[in-house]
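Lecture notes, unit on binding sites. The following record was shown on slide 14. It pairs a sequence with zinc ion.
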Amino acid sequence: MLLFKLIYSNGYYLPIGAHVFPAEKYRLIHDRLLASGVAEATDFLEPEPATDQDILLVHTPEYVHKLRTGTLSPLEEMELEIPYSPELVEAFWLAAGGSILAARQALTDRVSINIGGGFHHAFPDHGEGFCMIHDVAVAIRRMQRDGRIRTAMTVDCDVHHGNGTAAIFAGTRTRSEPLPSVSTSPLNREQPTANTMRRTHEGDVFTISLHQHNNYPAVKPPSSIDVDLPDGVGDDDYLAWLDNALSSGLRQFEPDLLCYIAGADPYREDQLGGLSLTMEGLKKRDELVFRVARARDIPVMVTFAGGYARNVEDTVAIQCNTVSAAKEVFVRGLSS
Ligand SMILES: [Zn+2]
């Protein structure tokens, strides 16, 4: 039995037909975790859908009305890049409910993993890039509304920039000086201007995004820390940049909850990514985030975001490894 809960429902399946987004991955991850013995049936909790009131903590009434009544414009549906249906709306409300439950469980058990969610391209007034509702933002705002947390930090390791997250939590940010470079990384020498690590922050949610610069979205609203990685970055450089971003973020800000968006798409075999991480490197990435959070006693809630490996089994393996990494790092439980 795990010392933390996994949040999952068969309703996470996105009814989008044949699509580069592997909508069946959630069930495959669930099944593989059980078959491999990493988790048992009792480790899973089934979420309730978020309420409209929860969704409205982040999204505009106009947008929620359009989703509830099926009145998105053709342009809005095109931006979403997945076909609208009332069933799809239900799946996103459920994913948001799953992230709310994961956040709540993380505050009790130190870590919790939503086997779904991480829809970081959703904005308050529109969805895009396969993301209708920003489940992580909804979970943060719900925990704040309930008085469970005051501050949060998002650590977004999906290969794509967390544009929705940055826009939602932009708040009253002001731009500050660039961070010092990472001395252990050769990136500076190779691309002196490309790997900008920007730092901008004021507000109650601190946002970190490590992403491939030359990738969707074209417009990247500023996160508190943005690490714009050049194409082809491999394990060692990636881990050095992540370590630097986490250290820098946690020097500036003390979150009550860390929301780790653990996209599988920095993988070298990903169809929508251009970084070169190995499966082992991705697991080290997960371990790094968990170790840093554990050392500082910051609760972590995890969502899975993107993953478009040529072989869907690779995406499933990477996301199962995130659960294994949490199991290994948090093995000693609350007493240690
Ligand atoms: Zn992605």
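Take-home: The chain is about 40% helix and 10% strand.
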